[in-house]
Model the fold of this input.
Amino acid sequence: MERTAPGDISPDFPFEHLRVKVLDGEMAYVDVGDRSSPHTVVFLHGNPTSSYLYRNIIPHVAPKARCIAPDLIGMGASSKLPQLSYRFADHARYLSAFLDAVVPTSKLTFVIHDWGSALGFDWACRHPHRISGLAFMEFIAPFPSWDTFGLEKSRDIFKAFRKPETGRKLLIDENRFIETVLPASVARPLTDAEMTHYRAPFLEHASREPLYRWPNELPIAGEPADVFAIAEQYHEWLLANDLPKLFFWAEPGALISPEKAKWYADRLKNTKCVGMGEGVHFLQEDNPHLIGREIGKWIDDTLSRAASKI
Done:
């Protein structure tokens, strides 16, 4: 599989953020591309990233679709709300309100990753009539036990993130998700400019509450019970539905190993699977141009054909 040379991955964010009032805050978002296209593509990021993660992917898709990439509440350039606990249910409420405000009626294609996948799958399984297609990578499924979660070498630190006596120190005081987990989850070294972008929303300790909450929301071994139940529901729906899908996977992966990728490839319906070669978790930072080109081809070959039959 063709890889993107590190020098071809720009650290620059070539878009201007728009802002929209959402509940008691504001969400920042990118809105570019072909508004005359029948396709609207929504890019959803996870922890600890933002719309910046998709900076090198959106330009490949924008000639073919309207492209919308929000920063989740409390993340990126969106409002930091001290009254919010930033649980999964909070993010789901704000994302739903954002979509109601920005794309209230359009059919949507989701490009989703990490917690963006959980939020996107959850919204999609509750609004299947609004979904044209799903493109996803390194997604969150319910993990029946710690032995099924992530890479073995990462399990101890994630267990520490979830312990009251160590979690806040590691994630808020020491900012470990930005300083350690993020760069370790990219196959290439992130540049100083890229790390500066990722650090920027979380320079103050008070802004890091989402970074603390997200690892504590991961649906592992039945906990938290509400998030685990939601993940079970959307995972069952993902395996059962016939919507067009585009599934990216890498080696060794983090949440999705090559073995898990094969399991999904054998079971997902109406799915094109793309092996990306080397990659850990933030695949958009390792091979963005491949991802962008594949999404563009998928829109042309699959979504446009499906739309023409309606």
Notes: The two ends are 34 Å apart (CA to CA). The longest helix spans residues 288-308.
